[in-house]
Amino acid sequence: METALVSSDTGAPVIAGSGLVKRFADFEAVRGIDFQVRRGEAFGFLGPNGAGKSSTMRMVSCMSPRSGGDLRVLGMDPDTHGPAIRARIGLVPQEDNLDRELTVRQNLHVYGRYFGLTRKQVRAKAVELIEFARLTDRADHDVEPLSGGMKRRLTIARALVNDPEVLLLDEPTTGLDPQARHLLWEKLFALKQRGVTLIITTHYMDEAEQLCDRLVVMDAGRIVAEGSPAELIARYVTREVLELRFSPGDQHGAVDSVRDLADRVEVLPDRLLLYTTDGDATAARAHDRGVRPTSTLVRRSTLEDVFLRLTGRTLVE
What we know:
317 residues; alpha/beta; Rossmann fold; Alpha-Beta Plaits; 3 domains
């Protein structure tokens, strides 16, 4: 696909929010956040349901006015330059909103006309985008019977019809199977390589680790951490995690025996998590103290460990 290259100059931020607020009546969904997105990077908003991710995305995409603070997108104010901003960005919403009575090709033709492309331009663009989305053999098929992964790829292809400088993706892989998710990651990585700035909201930690150069973790409308995935792991958790699994209930009797062996011990219904710099050595010391779990696993710490430490394990509805 011949997507226009974008300058890699990282001087002025492509998107900058300062004290950004979004209220719905008496509810404050976004509570004074500050963030900057650099040109050409993949930037993530992570958080549990209700954290304020989608509300932030809607403000950035000029779909919802801010309630307070300052916001600049491509150097412009969304409240006063919405059409000019929308002409230069692409949006992949959380729910696919394709016209399911049209074919794959027709969806792209219709959307391209919204941006003032001529019929000749939109036909050529549709061919490029269909190939990019790996939908060539379905180009003239109706959208309705397509798989979830195919519909998601078409939604992304449609968002690229105007050669956007910034692509906003709200929970891009929710509901997809692993194969479809990895194919989508491949496509997003290719876009980033071409210079497109990606802004992604997600609650999938492996997705954030795979795609994001930098990210913020949001909780209850606030930013609670910011950095690259590697920086956040180094800052908030240890290099490794030792998982000691027990029959449910038996883990409590081992807590006192291992508490001083790790930086932090977390008690779960069927296991203990010991956050440590050397999982194998910690496992050996626990064994020497008579701790006998049903199974032992040493793994590297992940962004999910950071996320759960910062936002907790309690379900937020």
